[in-house]
Amino acid sequence: MKVEEIKVTLPDGSVMDFKKGVSGEEVAKAISERLLKDAVAMKVDGILKDIASPLNEDCSIEILTSKNKESLEIYRHSTAHLLANAVKELFPETKIAIGPVIEDGFYYDFDRETPFTPEDLPAIEQKMAEIAKRGNPIERQDVSSEEAIRLFKGEDEPYKVELVTEKGQGGMVSIYKQGNFTDFCRGPHLSSTSKIKEGTFKLLSIAGAYWKGDEKNKMLQRIYGTSFFTKKELDEHLKKLEEARLRDHRKLGKELDLFSVADEIGGGLILWHPKGAIVRKTIEDFWREEHIKNGYEFVFTPHIGRSTLWETSGHLDFYKENMYPRMEMENQTFYAKPMNCPFHVMIYKSKHRSYRELPLRWAELGTVYRYEKSGVLHGLMRVRGFTQDDAHLFVPQDDMEKEVVSVINFTIHILKSFGFTEFSSFIATKPEKSVGEEERWNAATDALKRAAESVDLLYEMDEGGGAFYGPKIDIKIKDALGRSWQLSTVQFDFNLPEKFNLEYIGKDNKPHTPYMIHRALLGSLERFFGILIENFAGAFPLWLAPEQVRVMSIADRHIPYCEKLLAEFKEKGIRCSSDFRPEKINYKIREAQLEKVPYMLISGDREIENESVSVRTRSGGDRGSKKVVEFLDEFFKKVKSKEIKLD
RNA sequence: GCCGAUGUAGCUCAAUGGUAGAGCAGCGGAUUUGUAAUCCGUUGGUUGGAGGUUCAAGUCCCCUCAUCGGCUCCA
Hints:
By secondary structure, the chain is an alpha+beta fold.
C-alpha cells in the first residue's frame, strides 16, 4: 500500500516531504530538536493550530516559538486552564465558567459557594506548579456539540453546557483535556502542562464578575493572573505593577498635598488643595491662551437649569439615570447640569444668527455633576462632580468635516504640550438609546473617519459607544508606563440643533440649521490632573510644578541674601518658597526632594560673595554654582518651552 | 448598584476577648550646620458610625458609611 505524501512549505520557502497525517511536532523535530523543544503552536496556512495537529494536505506552516507575538497568548491561555485545573483539584465543588486571555494576562471565572480569599492564591499557585510538573499532555478532541454537552453535563459543569450550546450551535466543537480536567475551548494550546514553567506565572487578585458581564446574571468569582515565557519577564511585569502602585495618584495626591475627598462631603467630590489648585490654574491659563489663539470665545453658564431645558435637550429621556435628582422650588423643577451643551445652545438662541458669524466656537470650563454608582468612584479618575474643558462649535453643515479636522489638530497640539506624544482613538457609533435617523448617523460617522484619516490618527471602532445625540471620536494618550488613557472627545451632533430649533440665516437669506460639535480636549480637569500625577509620578514639569523653586539658607546669617532672592523671584512670577529653618542643609534638601520641588537654590557664604546661587535639581542633584541672572535665564527658557526634563 | 477585602493618632502600621502603642509629622527647647533625616522633651484616639453578645469588645455578631480590587457603566 502506498503511503500518501504531502508537501510542507516552511516560512523560508523551502519545501519538505512528509507522510500524510504528520504532526506539527514531527515537522518541528525534522527541522531541529531545539525547535521542537521551543515550539508553542503552529500556523497552518495562516491559521493557528496545536503543534500536535495532523497535517493532511499540502500546506505552508510556521512553527511558533516564544518569539512570536501570538505565542504569549497561547501560553497564557494554557496557564488559565492550568488555573482552572488546580482550582478543580483543590475545590472540586467549584463550577468553572470562562477563562480568556486579557491584555496583560488572563483570568478564569468560577462559581463557588465560599468565595476565594487572597490566602487561597498561593495554595492554588502551588497546585498549578504541581500539575504542570506532572506533564500531562494537553490534548484536543473535536466532538459534536451533543457529545460535549453530554460530557459537561456528566461533569456537572452548567456554565460549560451553556457555552457549548451557544457557541457550538449543534456543530462540531473542540475540547481540551489535560489529565482528568476537560475544558471547552477553541484553542490552540501548549502540547503539555509541563511547558508551563514554575515561576513564570502569578495569580494577582480575586474579584467578582457577572456571568457573561451582565449585571442581571449571577456574580461569579474571578481570579486574575498573568504569565510569561520567562521568570525574568514576569518579574519585570510585577515590577511595573509595583511602579504603577507607587505612582497611584491617590497616594501621591495625599503625600504631595494636592487634593482630597471627604466623607462629610461625599464620594467623588474633589477638594483641590492649594498645591493642586495652582497646577490647575496653570493648566487653565494655558488652555485659555491657546483657545484665544484658535478662534474660540469664552462663555460662563449656571450649574442648574429648569426641567424644561433638559426635556427639550433630551437629557431627561436619555441621560436621566446619570443626573442628580430634581430640585423643587416655587413650583419649578431644576436639575444640576450633567453637561454644558444646552446652556451654550441657549446663548446661541439669544439672538438671530447670520452665516457670517459661523462657525461660533464657545468654550467653558464647565463644572458638571453626574450620578455615578458608588462602586465605580476612583480617586480623580472617576468622580461625581467635575469640570470639563468643554466647547461647543456651531457649524454650517457643509463645514463640519473641516471643523472636526481642525479640532483634532488642536487637541493633539494641546496634549503634546503636556508631554504626551503617542495617540490613538476610538470612533464610537450609534448607541441603543439615541435620537436621529440611521442615515445621518452613518454619514456623520463616516465624516469622523475621514477626519481621523486626514490627520493620520489611528482609530478603532467602538460600536454603540456614541453619545445619544451623535457619534464621537475619543482620543487616547499613552502615559510614561505605556498605559492608555482616554482624554479628548469630539462629538458630532445634528440632533440638539434640531431639538432646539437652532438656525442661522444663510447667504440665500433663508434659515438653515447648523450642526454642533461638542468637544473636550483634556476631558475633565480632575481626570486629567490624575493622569498627569501618574504620568510624572508627582514630579510635574517645571511649567506646571506647584512650587518651582525653593530657596534654602545654610545658616541664619545667609537669610537676608536669601530673602532678597526670594523677593526678586516672586516679583518675576516664579512660584517659589523658602526654607530658612536652623536645620542642616541635608535635612532641607531631603524634604524638598520628597516634595519634588524642581529647583533647590542653596545659598551660603560663597554664593553671597559672588551674587550666585548653588543650583540643585530634583532629578540631577547638585548642578554647582550659577550667577543669579544665568539661573533665571535657564529657568525661564525651560518654562517657556514647557520642557519635561530639568537637565 | 453587585461580589470580595479593608477601616486604629495628620501619615505608615502594631495590639491571644482583659489598662490602645511605635516611627514619622506636629509642638517646645537645644544645635548655626555646604547637597537625601542633629539631639532632647512633648501633645495627640468616643479604634469610620449605630446597635447587640459578654463581667469585659479595636478584637465576636448584625446594620450602616467610606475606601480598595474587580464587574456593569464612563469624562
